[in-house]
């Protein structure tokens, strides 16, 4: 299908609402599995879709510390929500992967690396904070001397259709991390949803090629103005903030601050924060044998620094209490991550706040330490008590 109007390669265009299905169909026709938002078990998650009818049209999410609920909107917006418990990490860095196999033969053991085909994903609905998270994981998995081949192949094969945020949740703080809410780069196509369609722009050669096949028209100044207003609405709704000035030295210089003990009384060490985080990358490797003992698979699966066995080494547990495990997570995420990867490990998506059962808020915990650095007494700041019916 050819665009209705000749459009300059780098110009923004307008895609009518009926054209969204054409976008999905074109991606599917190009051999991509389109992964987008859909409702499942009371949450907006990411899964394979084939039709706009599977999108959460007319639904939004209400988020607070420890609380997530879906509610009906007063319009039919396709992307009128923030972020749910899933991140695109699960498709680029799968929760379970076989990294090697060993088979017993008459001549001994034969070792091999699985040669599975690389899935071609088209991600629909990627937010700015999630693009920032992908860039962070690019540095983790491909930026050093040792490259993760599974991640690299999946990342290189992925097509990114971003959607600019037009609303924010009370748990969002992307503006503090300079990661949103507007998508600036890292996408093939980017959409801003309006009532009658989408302002759409291309960010790569692949995006421009696809854009030429969509039923787009020239965008008007009025439509561009409405798109700017819609994106500004998300900025205006952001309530949370995280002061990142000198945060590395602040946290690493207060490793014995009483706030760590205070939060340990509330933290369940349940790993929810690390499972929903779009940048956490901890994993463990196990050997799984079949019943005959002739075939063994080396499987990598997600793990968490909140699991007590994660720090087992040299015959003992290094971090044997909740205090030390929470401290490890927060100081790595916001402080020593800079030493490892030259960036923060946080993108301000707020998932860890929403999906923490007792509603622990990392922005409050940092603020408590900043308010009283070097403290040695007991403090009671950031109680993080979750409301009734919490996540």
Kindly describe this structure.
The chain is an alpha+beta fold and 391 residues long. It has a domain at 13-95 and 118-237. 30% of the residues lie in helices and 23% in strands. It has 13 helices and 16 strands. It has helices at residues 19-29, 89-92, 128-142, 149-157, 174-177, 205-211, 221-237, 247-252, 258-264, 272-276, 322-341, 351-354, 362-371; strands at residues 13-16, 33-40, 43-48, 59-64, 67-72, 96-105, 108-112, 121-126, 159-163, 189-194, 197-202, 217-218, 283-289, 295-302, 312-313, 316-317. The protein has an 8-stranded mixed β-sheet, with helices on both faces. A 4-stranded antiparallel β-sheet has the order 7-6-14-13, with no helix packed on it. The chain has a two-stranded antiparallel ribbon with strand order 4-5. Helix 9 (258-264) crosses helix 11.
- Uncertain runs: 377-391
Count of DSSP strands: 16
* Overall mean confidence score, pLDDT: 92
Total helical segments? 13
The helix/strand class is alpha+beta
Radius of gyration over all CA atoms, rounded: 23 Å
Quaternary: single chain
Strand order of the largest sheet: 3-2-8-9-10-11-1-12
Could you tell me how far the N terminus lies from the C terminus, measured between alpha carbons in angstroms?
44 Å
Order of helices and strands: EHEEEEHEEEHHEHEEHEHHHHEEEEHHH
In percent, how helical is the residue content? 25-40%
Shape: globular
What does the largest sheet look like? 8 strands, mixed
Strand % is 15-25%
């Amino acid at each position: 299908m050819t665009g209705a109007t000749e459009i300059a390669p780098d110009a923004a265009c307008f895609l009518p609402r009926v054209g969204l299905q054409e976008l999905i169909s074109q991606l599917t026709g190009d051999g991509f599995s389109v992964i987008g938002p859909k409702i499942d078990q009371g949450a907006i998650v990411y899964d394979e879709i084939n039709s706009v009818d599977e999108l959460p049209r007319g639904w939004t999410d209400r988020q607070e510390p420890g609380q997530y609920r879906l509610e009906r909107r007063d319009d039919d917006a396709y992307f009128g929500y923030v972020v749910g418990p899933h991140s695109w990490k699960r498709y680029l860095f799968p929760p379970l992967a076989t990294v090697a196999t060993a088979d017993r033969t008459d001549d001994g053991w034969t070792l091999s690396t699985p040669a599975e085909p690389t899935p071609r994903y088209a991600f629909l609905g990627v937010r700015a904070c999630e693009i920032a998270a992908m860039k962070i994981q690019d540095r983790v998995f491909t930026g050093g001397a040792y490259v993760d081949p599974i991640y690299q192949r999946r990342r290189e094969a992925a097509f990114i259709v971003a959607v600019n945020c037009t609303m924010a949740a009370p748990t969002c703080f992307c503006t503090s991390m300079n990661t949103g809410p507007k998508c600036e780069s890292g996408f093939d196509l980017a959409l801003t949803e309006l009532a009658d369609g989408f302002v759409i722009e291309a960010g790569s050669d692949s995006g421009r090629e696809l854009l030429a096949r969509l039923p787009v028209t020239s965008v008007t100044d009025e439509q561009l103005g409405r798109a700017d207003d819609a994106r500004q609405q998300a900025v205006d709704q952001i309530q949370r903030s995280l002061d990142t000035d000198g945060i590395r030295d602040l946290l690493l210089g207060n490793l014995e601050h009483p706030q760590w003990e205070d939060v340990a009384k509330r933290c369940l060490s349940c790993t929810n924060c690390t499972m929903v985080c779009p940048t956490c990358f901890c994993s463990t490797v196990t050997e799984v044998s079949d019943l005959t003992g002739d075939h063994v698979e080396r499987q990598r699966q997600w793990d968490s620094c909140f699991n007590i066995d994660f720090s087992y080494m040299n015959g003992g547990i290094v971090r044997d209490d909740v205090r030390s495990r929470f401290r490890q997570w927060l100081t790595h995420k916001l402080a020593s991550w800079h030493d490892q990867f030259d960036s923060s490990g946080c993108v301000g998506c707020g998932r860890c706040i929403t999906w923490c059962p007792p509603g622990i808020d990392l922005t409050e915990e940092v603020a408590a330490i900043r308010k009283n650095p070097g403290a040695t007494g007991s403090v009671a700041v950031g109680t993080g008590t979750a409301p009734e019916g919490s996540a």
